[in-house]
């Protein structure tokens, strides 16, 4: 379900077991059938796409605060105001928080954000002094959300739609909060001195050709790793 609906799904305890529900359209229902060989569908009232907004709560990660436009950031925080629209990235997911923490531990330099979603990591990086910041994603709504959110936060982020296997422009630091499979394909796509990865469970250990593992952090069963290029 996480792979099919990374933007979120519902988990409900029922007497007969746990029920997993995705709020989706016909294409999403087809993906469920293709993957699980079956699913029970029911029509829901209009507006479900935006109901998640009620659950969009601010998070604090070190100096950074990430929250929706309708909340007030604390005065001592570096505020990242995010309205994700239909894109992933309210800041609340453990993998996003792990990346936000790591960005604060790195020396600001040029940055490539692979799988930008709402643009939360790109905007945080720009506020932390990373420049230039290039955000890429395979989904058009993510590019639109990143452009809108960067503008609302008064930072400059170049956002581009890319193919899932496309070779990407080089940067000193690359951050990628994507699936394990996409993380493991990164050495073919990127040229970066430092690579921050996340998007997988702590049980996974991505092996990246041409990179040395530097350190790992975990939160709520999710992991994030820092790699350094093995190139001299
Ligand atoms: C888990 S979300 C991360 C969003 C945001 N960066 C964050 O940390 O909250 C992953 C994003 O990566 C995008 N994505 C998935 N596979 C990708 C690939 N191969 N190349 C670029 N983007 C990809 C998805 O469309 C999605 O927006």
What is the top-level CATH class of the largest domain? Alpha Beta
Helix and strand run: EEHEEEHEHEHEEHEEE
Rg is: 18 Å
Distance between the termini: 41 Å
Associated small molecules: S-adenosylmethionine
**Mean pLDDT over the full residue set:** 91
What is the architecture of the largest domain at the second tier of CATH? 3-Layer(aba) Sandwich
CATH superfamily descriptor of the largest domain: Vaccinia Virus protein VP39
In brief:
The protein is of the alpha/beta class and 232 residues long.
Description:
With 232 residues, this protein is of the alpha/beta class. It folds into two domains: 35 residues, no CATH class; 144 residues, Vaccinia Virus protein VP39 (Rossmann fold), CATH 3.40.50.150. The protein is 22% helix and 29% strand. The chain is built from five helices and twelve strands. It has a seven-stranded mixed sheet with strand order 8-7-6-9-10-12-11, with helices on one face. A three-stranded mixed sheet has the order 3-4-5, with helices on one face. Strands 1-2 form a two-stranded antiparallel sheet. Strand 3 and strand 4 form a beta hairpin. It is globular, with a radius of gyration of 18 Å. It binds S-adenosylmethionine (SAM). S-adenosylmethionine binds next to helix 2, helix 3 and strand 7.
């Amino acid at each position: 379900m996480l792979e099919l609906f990374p933007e979120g799904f519902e988990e409900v305890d029922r007497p007969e077991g746990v029920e997993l529900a995705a709020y989706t359209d016909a294409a999403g229902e087809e993906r469920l059938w293709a993957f699980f060989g079956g699913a029970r569908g029911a029509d829901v009232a209009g507006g479900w796409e935006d109901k998640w907004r009620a659950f969009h709560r601010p998070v604090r990660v070190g100096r950074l605060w990430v929250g929706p436009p309708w909340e007030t950031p604390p005065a001592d925080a570096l505020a990242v105001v995010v309205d994700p629209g239909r894109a992933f990235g309210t800041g609340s997911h453990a993998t996003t928080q792990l990346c936000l923490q790591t960005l604060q531990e790195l020396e600001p330099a040029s940055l490539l954000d692979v799988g930008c979603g709402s643009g939360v990591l790109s905007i945080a990086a720009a506020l932390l002094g990373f420049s230039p910041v290039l955000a890429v994603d395979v989904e058009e709504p993510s590019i639109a959300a990143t452009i809108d959110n960067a503008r609302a936060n008064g930072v400059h982020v170049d956002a581009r739609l890319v193919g899932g296997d496309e070779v990407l422009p080089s940067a000193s630091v690359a951050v990628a909060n994507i699936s394990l499979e996409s993380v493991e394909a990164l050495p073919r796509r990127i040229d970066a001195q430092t690579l921050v990865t996340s998007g997988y469970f702590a049980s996974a250990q991505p092996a990246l050709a041409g990179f040395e593992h530097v350190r790992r952090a975990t939160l709520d069963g999710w992991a994030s790793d820092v790699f350094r290029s093995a190139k001299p």
